[in-house]
Design a protein that fits this description.
The chain is an alpha/beta fold and about 475 residues long. It has a single domain, classed as TIM Barrel. The protein is about 40% helix and about 15% strand. The chain contains 14 helices and 15 strands. Strand 3, helix 6 and strand 4 form a beta-alpha-beta unit. Helix 3 runs parallel beside helix 5 and helix 7 runs antiparallel to helix 8. The relative contact order is 0.14. Bound molecules: 5-hydroxymethyl-3,4-dihydroxypiperidine (IFM). The site of 5-hydroxymethyl-3,4-dihydroxypiperidine has 9 residues, from loops.
């Protein structure tokens, strides 16, 4: 194992989300979320799977907490199922709240700090219009207040939204995620209401508890032009960077959507939905920025007569995640890929962290945390003692930790690393066929550590030893 250096007090942990692990979909008064509805749509999820049972964390949370303790982890980021804790009539559901209260108590008893994400994609089905409705942003702030009222005495770190780009663009433009819409204008509307909900929730949490640590987690899709000298490639990379990264960073850190993206969007732009005061609310100061990093991409413009390998254009805007980009050819860089088909680019993490520090978080004095990083592999090599030998996952994690530690050495204020994920789980439209866990799950739902879990335990242990 390569030694890595992180500052004293660096947080080590894992992350999960409610819909991906809890199961118990109809237990204790939980009502459906948009993901329950989406799973029922024929063809939406590989193999027609759903997360009704998932990995039954709802009933096995004690076992999962015990595993985290055995691995020596100090932090656990989990999310709350909004429709488990709030009923359609707007009243709190005591049984649902009690589940999270018991989970938090179990974590604290095990010496693990709970880090609560309010929204990881499972919007209650009963909210009319979903994120297309401005009212949902206000309901979200009420939900934040409720959760703080119940858990704020024990939970000190709060993430408002996980990866709002996915909620907006995969949910409303590409249709790969719930609610499965394919309208780019809707994605812009949803993105604004998500960000507004974030801002209102920050205000609600601050009002309830000025000492709470409050942040947001973004997923980043760094993109490089294939030929930095080719104007068309460079413009394509700018457009994709604009919607994938700057469209969220800029309003959060500068109080304005990026002017070039707004110009590209024309009549579909956010001016349709922005109201007075929204951007001030969205840009409220943060205590931390969560970084989810998996891969990067390289793109080029199609050559004359060539068709894009991914037909991204529908009219003048895309029905794809990259709403404002014209046709793009994704260049395969002949580097290893994970089971998701994502290219393994640890250097991209270094570049991302240093860019964030330079352009956004450094000037704002906001620390960074890696709130997700990990890889799906097939996990088909089993050692004689039954342990899954996931040396490919270890190599992935190790290389990314090396890159992160170099970023720290070069001045990035990075304060923690949460591996995705604690346990194999429901990988959204891919169902259970893509495994990210450092713990595997048997058919009887028993957890078994993979080689990566033993490796991670050693990394965490050795990082805490004074040099
Ligand atoms: O499983 C997801 C998670 O829910 C959000 N970030 C990316 C992970 C891997 O795709």
């Amino acid at each position: 194992m390569t030694m890595i250096a992180f500052p004293a007090g660096f947080r080590w942990g894992t992350a999960t989300s409610a819909y991906q692990i809890e199961g118990a979909a109809r237990t204790g008064g939980r009502t459906p979320s948009i993901w329950d509805d989406f799973c029922a749509v024929p063809g939406a999820i590989a193999g027609g799977e759903d997360a009704d049972v998932a990995v039954d964390h709802y009933h096995r949370y004690g076992e999962d907490v015990a595993w985290m303790a055995r691995l020596g982890l100090d932090t656990y980021r989990f999310s709350v199922s909004w429709s488990r804790v709030l009923r359609p009539d707007g009243t709190p559901n005591p049984a649902g709240l009690d589940f999270y209260s018991r989970l938090v108590d179990a974590l604290l008893e095990a010496g693990i700090d709970p880090w609560l994400t309010l929204y990881h994609w499972d919007l209650p089905s009963h909210l009319p219009g979903g994120w297309l409705s401005r009212d949902t942003a206000f309901r979200f702030a009420e939900f934040a207040t409720l959760m703080h009222g119940v858990l704020g005495d024990r939970v000190r770190i709060w993430t408002t939204l996980n990866e709002p780009w996915c909620s907006a663009f995969l949910g409303y433009a590409s249709g790969e995620h719930a609610p499965g819409h394919t309208d780019p204008g809707e994605a812009i509307t949803a993105a604004h209401h998500l960000l507004l909900g974030h801002g209102l929730a920050v205000a609600a949490l601050r009002a309830a508890d000025p000492q709470a640590q409050v942040g947001i987690t973004l997923n980043f899709g760094p993109v490089e032009p294939a030929d930095p000298e080719a104007a068309a490639d460079v413009d394509l990379a700018r457009r994709i960077d604009g919607t994938a990264n700057r469209y969220f960073l800029d309003p959060l850190f500068t109080g304005a959507y990026p002017a070039d993206v707004v110009a590209d969007l024309g009549p579909l732009g956010p001016d349709r939905v922005i109201q007075d005061g929204d951007l001030a609310a969205i840009s409220a100061p943060l205590d931390l920025l969560g970084v989810n990093y998996y891969t990067t991409s390289m793109v080029r413009a199609p050559r004359p007569g060539e068709h894009a390998d991914r037909p991204l254009v529908r009219g003048r805007v895309l029905a794809s995640p990259h709403v404002t980009a014209p046709e793009a050819v994704t260049v395969s860089r002949a580097i290893p890929v994970t089971a998701m088909g994502w290219e393994v680019d640890p250097e991209g993490l270094y570049r991302l962290l240093t860019r964030l520090q330079r352009e956004y978080t450094g000037p704002a004095g906001v620390p960074l945390f890696i709130t997700e990083n990990g890889a799906a592999y097939d996990d088909d090599r089993v050692l004689p003692d039954g342990t899954v030998d996931d040396s490919d996952r270890i190599a992935y994690l190790d290389a990314h930790l090396q890159a992160a530690s170099r970023a720290v050495a070069d001045g990035v204020d990075l304060r923690g690393y949460l591996a995705w994920s604690l346990v194999d789980n429901f990988e959204w439209a891919h169902g259970f066929g893509r495994r990210f866990g450092i713990l595997g799950v048997d058919t009887d739902l028993r957890r078994t550590p993979k080689s990566s879990a033993h490796w991670y335990k050693e990394v965490v242990r050795s990082s805490r030893i004074e040099p």
